[in-house]
Amino acid sequence: MIPAKVKIVEVGPRDGLQNEKEFVPTETKIELVNRLARAGIVNVEATSFVSPKWVPQMSDAAAVMAGIERRAGTIYSVLTPNIRGFEGALEAKADEIVIFGAASEAFSQKNINCSIAESVARFEPVAKAAKDAGMRLRGSISCALGCPYQGEVSVASVVDVVERMKALGCDEIDIADTIGVGTPKRTREVLAAASKVFPRERLSGHFHDTYGQAIGNIYAALLEGIEIFHASVAGLGGCPYAKGATGNVATEDVVYLMNGLGIETGIDLDQLVDIGDFISRAINKPSSSRAGRALFTKKRDGVAACA
Ligand code: HMG
Ligand code: MG
């Protein structure tokens, strides 16, 4: 049954901006996070405590976390690949830490420089430390619907990583289509299989839109009863370790879809459209949100956009 309410996790400040070549000023990142939370986003992935050698754009993680306003009830998440990252997250008082592995060996090597098994071993102390500190723990599984290096990824290998993440104590697990190759049929198969080993209501769909399938995949995921979706405002992003992959599905498009389906998100679409315009101007790139562009044009010109 399709859920009546969903949680949208806004990943634009992290997944969206991490791939920008030009350094985005810390003040812009802070304003982005603050505006998103004010628009009703209850979970914002704010930044990453990763190696600045690997992802220079996230090198201001501590300053971003120190500068944002903390709205009561909003979860501010950060990525932490190792204990060093966890210490940064703890110091910054993040609400949730995200460990990130992959269902593909090849991608694991390229993204975090170790095998899947090594990554799980590296996450163990991080997961334990998060639990001891009373922080929420989320596990993200890249390449769940295909890999840029090895191609096909089996459903069994996704389920295997879901089980490993579950054993680490993850509160939520993301099924991520890193390069946006998935289609609705495969999405349903993977989510149905994952739901057999982990509670469906704590699984999320993280779809990139490279092949234009993300909204279709979200609808497919809704049919599987999934209630948590990741999106990035203006469709920001890509992945530094998945060349050619475009950004996440745009938050404006997802909220437009949910509004049309009568599914509650708690997000003000009008504000979101303005935020999409703000960040697109700030990084000097056109928004890739179809709904965002149409609604912005309609607001500005007072007529419906037709192209
Ligand atoms: P490594 O080079 O194997 O490890 O990197 P290392 O321990 O040798 O560290 C290298 C250098 O980084 C050292 O500095 C460390 O001190 C430093 P040096 O001694 O050479 O001066 N370092 C750190 N600095 C700050 N914070 C840290 C940290 N750790 C080490 N936490 C490592 C291994 C995991 C650190 C590296 O590969 C890394 O940081 N990778 C991050 C990759 C990344 O952020 N990818 C994008 C996010 S994942 C994603 O986008 C997918 C997702 O959206 C879902 C989907 O769509 O698929 C979540
Ligand atoms: Mg991603």
TrEMBL record:
Substrates-to-products reaction catalysed: (3S)-3-hydroxy-3-methylglutaryl-CoA = acetoacetate + acetyl-CoA
CDD domains recorded: DRE_TIM_HMGL (cd07938)
GO annotation, biological process: ketone body biosynthetic process; L-leucine catabolic process
MF-aspect GO terms: hydroxymethylglutaryl-CoA lyase activity; metal ion binding
Pathway: Metabolic intermediate metabolism; (S)-3-hydroxy-3-methylglutaryl-CoA degradation; acetoacetate from (S)-3-hydroxy-3-methylglutaryl-CoA: step 1/1
InterPro entries per UniProt: Aldolase_TIM, HMG_CoA_lyase_AS, HMGL, PYR_CT
Keywords attached to this entry: Lyase, Metal-binding
Domain Pyruvate carboxyltransferase: 6-273
Annotated Gene3D superfamilies: Aldolase class I
Enzyme class: lyase
EC code(s) of this entry: 4.1.3.4
Similarity section: Belongs to the HMG-CoA lyase family.
NCBIfam families the UniProt entry points to: PRK05692.1
Protein name: hydroxymethylglutaryl-CoA lyase
Native source species: Caballeronia insecticola
Native organism taxonomy: Bacteria, Pseudomonadati, Pseudomonadota, Betaproteobacteria, Burkholderiales
